[in-house]
Structure formats: structure tokens, C-alpha cells
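SAMPLE LOG
Freezer: B-3
Tube label: C17
Construct: single chain, 179 aa
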Amino acid sequence: MAERQAITVRAELRAGRGKNDARRLRARGMVPLTVYGGEGEPVSAAAPLRELAAILRSGAGHNTIFTLDVEGVGANEVLFLDRQIDPVKGRLVHADLRRLVQGQEVEVTVRDLAAVYAHVERAVADPERRVRLEGDIAAVRRVANALQVGMAGETHYLFGDDRFPWGAEFERAAARDGQ
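STRUCTURE (predicted):
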């Protein structure tokens, strides 16, 4: 298995709140973001759009674990929890990040797994192995992408591509069950 490339994004602490402050940040090429979870209080910060967009375009996309170094707060390993994309320009306008703590378990509920399974079933039945995301989209993205069970993008769930190791296993199981 290849070593994970260390990515560090430097960010500044965000003092202001509201629409006008967010617009000013975006005009400077920054993205307002909030870091939640882990050990510590939520932190409002701003990071360069160019660097966050490069992470989202990478192979692991929004599942990439990277270090966010917020000036005056310190560095934490994070990953995207949620993000808002401008529907016209297609640019990242806000991000929520999850602070990771080594050894801390991440909870996945039966409901989350059921949402992923529903998408897998629909995608296997689709000739293009591509279906529109529905229901609890955040859970499908978080679980399916992390477990490498297909890929949940912005609007669609894709299944069966060779880069997903579980795809062939699910297809064999579905064929065995007569589906």
C-alpha cells in the first residue's frame, strides 16, 4: 500500500461572521470553514481556495486526510465533513471539516449502511452503474467513499469501476442471490 502524502494547509483564524465577511474572504481567494469534532471547541477559520480545491480534485477527493494549521490555534488532522459548492461557478464557497483524533472510533449506524446499500442495489441494476444520490447523501458519501464501496460524488453514486475493490465482490454476491 502506498504511503499517504502529507498535505498541510495553512489557515487564518476567522474573527468576523456573516455574509459580508464571507464575501470579503472569497474575494481574497479564501474559503470560510469550520472545524468540528475531536478534542476541542469548533474553530472558524479561512483557508486558500486553491489548496482546498486541489485536495477535492485529488484521487481521494473529500475523503483526503490532511493537516490544517490554523494560525494561533495549531495543527490538526482533518477531513471534509460537508462542503458547499456555488451552483453557477462550481467553486467551493464553504467547508465543514472534521477534526480527527488518532484512536478515536468513528460511528457508522445501521441507517448509514442501509442508505449505502440502497444505492449499491440501484447502481448494480443500472446499465451504466450510475445513479442519482438520494436520501441521506452525507452518510452515503462518508461511508461509501471511506469503505471504497463505489464513489459518491456531488450528484451521483458510481459503482463497479475497477478502482473499487469491493465492486466485484458485490456483483458476485448479487449474481449468487439471483439479482
